[in-house]
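Dear Dr. H.,

I hope your travels went smoothly. While you were away I took the liberty of generating a structure for the chain from your last submission, since the lab meeting agenda had it listed for discussion. I wanted you to have the full record in hand beforehand rather than looking at slides cold. The sequence, exactly as received, is reproduced here:
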Amino acid sequence: MKRRSALLAMLLLPVLVCAQEKKAPPAGAETKMPETKVAPAKAPKVRIKTSQGEIVVELNAEKAPVTVENFLSYVKKKHYDGTVFHRVINGFMIQGGGFALEDGKLVQKVSGKGIVNEGQNGLKNDRGTIAMARTADPNSATAQFFINVADNAALNFPSNGGYAVFGKVISGIEVVDKIKAVATGQKELTMLHPATGEKMTLPSGDVPVANVVIESITAE
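The corresponding predicted structure, in token form, is as follows:
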């Protein structure tokens, strides 16, 4: 219980502190954007091809329309291709979609504006669900996502607005379990300053020792 509370507290640290604190999630240079009306298919699916195997995720466009539309926009742009799972904590979650390899280094990719948080949609951060990573600002999620590898009730609404769940793994949960078990340590990540967009290299913990690459994410 104490470990889970500590992990939650660290999830809420802003990006500049993230890289210096062991359990803080890196995020992009993000700004809010007004809510938009979207109407994607009710249950689109995506296939996440990783260096550890394939994961199929069913997205819940009915309960998380803004989040699903945003995620699929990054899929369409192939933003995720060649990114990595840069933060892995067994018993908590695996996070990816924000950093790619450049000359052997993990460098944060430029992402778009923050979206309206749909953490109140009733979907829970249970094992096998996919949710948006963000800073302490509930409306700061852009491209980074995480897959829960345990039931993480502390991430649900009303805690800091809730972390918006927008789908669930329907195939390849064994691949998720392989990824959650990889060896991790401290590495330097090149991040983008949230205000200026300038690159800064800082140490970060819970980074896989051997890169777990997201080779592609494609709509089914």
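Two observations you may find useful: The radius of gyration is 16 Å. Helices lie at 2-11, 15-18, 65-76, 173-180.

With kind regards,
E. W.
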